[in-house]
Automatic annotation (TrEMBL):
It comes from Cyprinus carpio (Common carp). Keywords: Activator, Nucleus, Repeat, Transcription, Transcription regulation, WD repeat. GO terms for biological process: positive regulation of DNA-templated transcription. Residues 750-810 form the Mediator complex subunit 16 C-terminal domain. It is found in: Nucleus. PROSITE patterns: WD_REPEATS_2, WD_REPEATS_REGION. The gene is MED16. One of its GO terms (cellular component) is mediator complex. WD repeats lie at residues 67-98. Component of the Mediator complex. Component of the Mediator complex, a coactivator involved in the regulated transcription of nearly all RNA polymerase II-dependent genes. Mediator functions as a bridge to convey information from gene-specific regulatory proteins to the basal RNA polymerase II transcription machinery. Mediator is recruited to promoters by direct interactions with regulatory proteins and serves as a scaffold for the assembly of a functional preinitiation complex with RNA polymerase II and the general transcription factors. Its main location: nucleus. Pfam families: Med16_bridge, Med16_C, Med16_N. InterPro entries: MED16_bridge, Mediator_Med16, Mediator_Med16_C, Mediator_Med16_N, WD40/YVTN_repeat-like_dom_sf, WD40_repeat_dom_sf, WD40_rpt. This is Mediator of RNA polymerase II transcription subunit 16.
Length: 817
């Protein structure tokens, strides 16, 4: 383990220094982190413990501090399965649901709330939506994604008519009450509360898990290690438009340390209670602590049938069940100095090679333990930023005499468990890499296989792959790209179509990690835009008659263009039913900026064909991409037909001759280039005649500058070295030698025209419009739409939630001069 970056507060608020104030941290599948602090502002002594801070991992300085309105300390934070909504709960029983304002990660608002007045919340979870994807590590060498990742039969916690999962959340209070809030389709809340059992008692700790049958399991303890850990089954239903909660008491367990006479009174308090995962209710971890140390026990629970006497078998068809302890292991850690041995945080992770857990110790270290054996796999020292593998010098010898003052109060693993975020008692946020080998030395090929497996997993599930990129060194990028493409091409056509844009986005992210492949990142971003424009333009086509044949007009266009190898665009048009291309004038005119981009891009590619030996130039990847060249060819045919109906929608070229038919010339050269590369298994080099004609293009047409490609100002390209970055909240990271007071530009050249990458518009040198940028690729677009036509608004609505690459949006300030 090693630190990637540390982010601290710019004004350095002072700490409350109250160990009783818990800190919570949550990491979403979209790589958003929400956390709390126990700090006060030095200027006005304002308590910041009621604030919720949200960041995206690639721009940690751009923190959005939400004034939550909670009156007590926030005890729980929980992201939903989509990673776009956040639940928060406090010590007064208030539960709030937060959503993005205008789908911006740095702007949040409360959309729903519920409360159990005066009853503190100790556990909180969203209801399960029934989606579960199993990762089969033993089949990681398979070429079929369906064998590596399979859909598991898992029932939602509650379903609507037709089997659609109903959204909502469930919470457990300190008085032993379980409360459920359901989000009805009309936006209203349906709330109900019920006692966990008939005899309500104090619940100090609780956790929630789900079963495959749609039930909910709650584990609860009163905080005393001498008391049993209770388990309850909770079923949620809707009867006559009212929420109904049914609870059932399950078998309980006593911690083994309390049944041992030697250790009966050594660990009096249960400080942590966690299920292995939300979807695994059969394995639970318990931690009991004292001022002298802590003990962690791993329990596996199952139901077994008890043999009964024959006299009872005919009376009841039901089997008697009991709770059976399969495995119970302990891990004891004691302090170097009294009072510094308590485990302040316990969290679980599921990783590629192992299932394990992380313990944050009060001496400032983090210990990684194997889930089954509880053997130590690694130790991280927060004060020094160093880590220790198994077999190295013990941690107790490496501590300072007085003991470090820094320790972690909240920990959270990423969804692939390759990164760990921790919030310390000074309010600093630490981003820590966790090796997929968990301390074992792996050769390069094995490490590449692990990273490739996790990238494929992210592609299939839709999870963000930022934490996987933390471990991809520049020297690995080329091999990862090649192997990822090979695995993708082995999948069936249906799956390839589903993952077609997602794999391009993954490749673009990988290429940015190495200077040798930076130009290919530009090509992949251009391909994303090309695919989007092509599907949008084809969607405008309508069949001429109502009895639609099997193929849509767009499919017939692709089929005819693939078969017809004529270099004359007008002859290709003859074979098409032009009545399917008849559109009104306003939609065509409003899409002119997208049509102009297509025309400029074709001219740019052909003009750069003579320089194909230079792999560093943007556009090189398209010269042998038969599918993309064919897509460009189809769009030129569509644009040519639309130009006959509305000449104003045609792309504008600056030609040296008045009688130059630019579209005819570009289509002819593009077809020749496409013929060389349409057979990807046997590509051919362009002949000398084509290269000579392309050399003459700059003298016939003015070649546009395609310096519109987005550039990302995130930290992922800067944390590849072993030296951790030191960042400040609210202060953008600047490269060495750059004035730290200047705003980091998300545009390529500060003195050039700024571009709206989605609308393909020039914004001027100093745009005054509010803009938003993609957290993943850096694509910039205006926050407010300047268009009023339906065709362009439909284009903009496609990207209202996510960027072309699937990344989230964040608001960026307007650049004023």
């Amino acid at each position: 383990m090693e630190i990637a970056y540390v982010c601290e507060w710019e004004k350095r608020p002072k700490s409350n220094h109250c160990p009783s104030i818990p800190l919570v941290c949550a990491w979403s599948c979209r790589n958003l982190i929400a956390f709390t602090t126990d700090l006060k502002n030095e200027e006005d002594d304002k308590d910041l413990s009621h604030m919720i801070h949200v960041i995206d991992t690639d721009h940690p300085w751009d923190v959005n501090s939400i004034n939550s309105g909670h009156t007590e300390v926030i005890s729980c934070l929980e992201w939903d399965q989509s990673g776009s909504r956040l639940l928060s709960a406090d010590g007064d029983g208030q539960i709030k649901c937060w959503g993005m304002t205008e789908h911006l990660v740095n702007s949040w608002e409360c959309t729903q709330s519920s409360s159990v007045d005066g009853d503190p919340i100790v556990a909180l979870s969203w209801l399960h939506n029934g989606v579960k994807l199993a990762l089969h590590v033993e089949k990681s060498g398979s070429t079929n994604f369906g064998e590596k990742f399979s859909r598991v039969k898992f029932s939602p916690s509650l379903t609507l008519f037709g089997g659609k999962p109903m959204e909502g959340w469930l919470a457990v209070t300190v008085s032993g009450l379980v409360t459920v809030s359901l989000l009805k389709p009309n936006g209203t809340l349906l709330t109900a509360s019920e006692s966990l059992c008939r005899l309500r008692g104090r619940v100090a700790l609780a956790d929630i898990a789900f079963t495959g049958g749609g039930n909910i399991v709650v584990a609860a303890t009163d905080g005393s290690s001498s008391s049993p850990v209770q388990f309850y089954k909770v079923c949620v239903s809707v009867v006559n438009e009212k929420c109904r909660i049914d609870t059932e008491l399950l078998p309980s367990l006593f911690m083994r340390c309390t049944t041992d006479p030697v250790r009966r009174d050594k660990y009096p308090a249960v400080t942590h209670l966690k299920f292995l995962t939300r979807e695994n209710s059969e394995q639970v971890l318990l931690c009991a602590s004292s001022q002298m140390g802590s003990i962690v026990e791993c329990w596996s629970l199952r139901k077994e049938g008890l043999p009964v006497n024959n006299i009872f078998q005919h009376r009841s068809p039901l089997k008697l069940l009991k709770s059976s302890e399969v495995k119970r292991l302990s891990f004891v850690f004691s302090p170097s100095t009294p009072g510094l041995g308590t485990a302040t945080c316990l969290w679980l992770m599921i990783i590629l090679l192992f299932s394990g857990l992380a313990l944050a110790i009060h001496d400032g270290s983090i210990q990684l333990l194997h889930r089954l054996s509880l053997h130590t796999m690694g130790v991280f020292y927060g004060s020094s930023g160093s880590s220790q593998r198994v077999g190295e010098e013990p941690a107790i010898k490496r501590q300072r005499a007085g003991g470090p003052t820094l320790h972690f109060k909240a920990l959270q693993f990423s969804w692939t468990s390759l990164a760990l975020v921790g919030v310390d008692n000074h309010g600093k946020l630490h981003m820590i890499r966790v090796s997929p080998s968990m301390g074992q030395l792996l050769d390069m090929n094995t490490l590449l296989r692990h990273l490739l497996f996790l990238l494929e997993y992210c592609m299939v599930t839709g999870y963000d792959w930022w934490d996987v990129l933390l471990h991809a060194q520049p020297s690995m990028v080329h091999n990862l790209l090649e192997k990822l493409h090979e695995e993708y091409m082995r999948q069936n056509q249906a799956l390839q179509q589903v993952l077609s844009t997602r794999i391009v986005a993954v490749k673009a992210s990988l290429c940015k990690l190495s200077s040798a492949t930076a130009a290919r990142a530009c090509d992949f971003h251009a391909k994303l835009l090309l695919i989007a424009i092509s599907s949008t333009l084809k969607s405008l086509l309508r069949p001429h008659v109502l009895n639609t044949p099997d193929k849509s007009p767009g499919d017939r266009l692709s089929e005819i263009c693939a078969k017809n190898t004529d270099t004359d665009i007008d002859k290709v048009m003859i074979n098409l039913k032009t009545e399917e291309f008849v559109l009104d004038g306003p939609p065509l005119q409003s899409l002119q900026q997208l049509i102009q981009w297509v025309g400029d891009f074709v001219l740019y590619l052909l003009a750069n064909l003579p320089n194909q030996g230079s792999i560093v130039r943007p556009g090189f990847g398209f010269l042998r991409d038969g599918a993309s060249l064919g897509m460009l060819r189809e769009m030129l045919v569509m644009i040519r037909i639309w130009g006959l109906l509305k000449p104003g929608c045609l792309p504008i070229y600056t030609a040296t001759s008045d009688n130059q038919d630019s579209m005819f010339l570009l289509f002819r050269l593009l077809t020749k280039l496409w013929l060389c590369s349409r057979d990807e298994s046997h590509p051919q080099d362009p002949d000398e005649t084509l290269i000579d004609e392309c050399c003459l293009l700059p003298s016939q047409l003015l070649v546009p500058s395609m310096d519109w490609l987005p550039i990302n100002d995130g930290v992922i390209t800067k944390v590849q070295s072993k030296h951790p970055l030191r960042l400040q909240f609210g202060k953008p990271y600047t490269l060495p030698g750059v004035n730290p007071n200047t705003q980091v530009e998300v545009f390529r050249i500060p003195a050039s025209q700024r571009m709206d990458h989605l609308r393909c518009l020039h914004l001027g040198i100093s745009p005054t419009e509010d803009s938003k940028a993609c957290t993943r690729c850096g694509c910039v677009t205006m926050l407010r739409s300047p268009n009023k036509t339906n065709a362009m608004r439909q284009w903009e609505q496609r990207w209202i939630k996510n960027c072309l690459c699937g990344g989230l949006w964040r608001r960026i300030p307007s650049t004023l001069t």
